[in-house]
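Late entry, evening session. Most of the bench is empty. Finally got around to the prediction I had been postponing all week. Sequence below, unchanged from the version circulated by S.P.
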Amino acid sequence: MAALRDRNWLTDSDLTLSTHGAARRAAIETRTDELSTHRYEVIGPDGCERLRKLSSALSIRIMDADLAFPPMLSQRYRDTVR
């Protein structure tokens, strides 16, 4: 936490993202999206739909196995795929 405060990513008072921290996080999220898009563009919309169908059931089984997948994320994923 101290390193993030020192880099002005967190506020000193309540340890929430500062304006700078929020901007950096947004930039990282944007870059992550840019880097991940190519693989999906290659297979196209039909390939993406097939991949989703093939992987959804397995992903839900993994989450149901209670392998420490964060509960908030697992519920959000379940809501998305069902």
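Two things to note before I forget:
Residues 19-64 form the longest helix (46 residues).
The chain is about 75% helix and 0% strand.
Will write this up properly tomorrow.
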